[in-house]
């Protein structure tokens, strides 16, 4: 099949995928679009938001639409790395038995892995998950298990801080996007979610939706084609490099924030890997808009969700992170010349 025709057909599937999820998760169109971009850019996603706003429903809807196998694990203070790989129990004869854990149960069919409340898990667990995200494999029982189609979604509740562990920089950098899920503002959406019993039984709601809208086992190939088809101009390449430099040297671009010593603000800016994620996500956005050329608006549209968890502030400003990071990112977009 012609490559352009194939990507056009896949674009139609992607839009069907988006529409299906928006029928299940109301009032989260921007978050749904970003999740879809991450899926076609083959990037892992970190969701953040309070309890009860639809994070789990969103991920279950994504897993249903992708097909393949779905696994979920709960982050707890006593969770150990081995719990992701195997569990022990007594069989019917009362003898100790070892069974595959959530990572190994589905084998190579594992497409969506959801880590609920990841910040409640220990750093040792984060380290194991980091390898799975980075390499798509894990070692167990003297052999290597590979997950060629795995996409990791994790969430964290920003309200409760007791018995939680902050994700290390290396783990956060492996997530392509950090997407905020907030309570919908529109009264009509709230009325539907509160009073329409269709949204009260999540199992029935998910089961009623179509499965396998997107063939998960073809995503890697299609994602590679998208990245090859959408090309940036030389001036846009320089724009991306300026954005990268500004994330660690904002004063060099005339960026300032009120009541902030800009020379002391940044501990670490975005890495080249982080910027490559930005380009990957922007290319998918351009593809969805039926373009073969990358534009500045593509980078700007995904800039916050790709960049906000990649910039680390010095300790004296870390407590103001929720306020300063968005302001800094806005300043970067405003002060750096657009080609």
Give the SSE layout.
Blueprint lengths: L2 H22 L4 H13 L2 E5 L6 H12 L2 E6 L7 H4 E5 L5 E5 L9 E7 L6 H13 L1 E4 L2 E4 L4 E6 L12 H5 L1 E6 L6 H9 L6 H6 L11 H11 L4 H13 L15 H4 E3 L3 H17 L7 H12 L4 E2 L1 H4 L2 H15 L4
Parallel strand pairs: 1-8, 1-9, 2-5, 5-8
Antiparallel strand pairs: 3-4, 6-7, 10-11
Descriptive account of the structure:
This protein is of the alpha/beta class. It has two domains: 3-77 and 108-214, P-loop containing nucleotide triphosphate hydrolases (Rossmann fold); 230-335, Orthogonal Bundle (Helicase, Ruva Protein, domain 3). It has 15 helices and eleven strands. The strands form four sheets. It has a five-stranded parallel β-sheet with strand order 2-5-8-1-9. A two-stranded antiparallel sheet has the order 3-4.
């Amino acid at each position: 099949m012609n490559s352009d025709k194939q990507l056009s057909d896949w674009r139609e599937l992607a839009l069907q995928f988006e529409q299906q999820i928006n029928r299940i998760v109301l009032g989260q169109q921007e978050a749904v679009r970003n999740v879809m971009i991450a899926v076609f850019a083959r990037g892992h996603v970190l969701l953040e938001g309070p309890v009860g706003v639809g994070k789990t429903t969103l991920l279950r809807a994504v897993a249903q639409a992708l097909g393949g196998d779905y696994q979920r694990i709960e982050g707890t203070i006593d969770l150990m790395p081995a719990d992701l790989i195997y569990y022990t129990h007594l069989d019917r004869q009362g003898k100790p038995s070892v069974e595959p854990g959530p990572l190994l149960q589905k084998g190579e069919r594992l497409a969506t892995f959801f880590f609920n409340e990841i910040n409640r898990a220990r750093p040792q667990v984060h380290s194991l998950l980091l390898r799975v995200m980075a390499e798509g494999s894990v070692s167990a029982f003297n052999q290597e298990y590979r997950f060629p189609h795995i996409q990791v979604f994790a969430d964290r509740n920003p309200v409760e801080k007791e018995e939680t562990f902050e994700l290390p920089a290396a783990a956060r950098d492996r997530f392509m996007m950090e997407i905020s899920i907030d309570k919908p503002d529109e009264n009509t959406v709230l009325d539907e979610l509160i009073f329409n019993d269709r949204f009260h039984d999540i199992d029935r709601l998910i089961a009623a939706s179509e499965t396998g809208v997107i063939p998960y086992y073809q995503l890697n190939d299609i994602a590679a084609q998208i990245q090859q088809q959408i090309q940036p101009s030389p001036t846009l390449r320089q724009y991306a490099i300026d954005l990268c430099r500004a994330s660690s040297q904002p004063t060099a671009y005339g960026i300032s924030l009120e009541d902030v010593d800009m020379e002391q603000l940044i501990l670490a800016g975005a890495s080249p890997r982080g910027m490559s994620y930005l380009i990957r996500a922007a290319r998918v956005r351009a593809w969805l808009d039926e373009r073969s050329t990358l534009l500045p608006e593509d980078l700007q549209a995904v800039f916050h969700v790709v960049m906000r968890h990649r910039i680390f502030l010095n300790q004296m400003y870390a407590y103001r992170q929720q306020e300063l990071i968005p302001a800094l990112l806005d300043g970067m977009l405003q002060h750096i010349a657009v080609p």
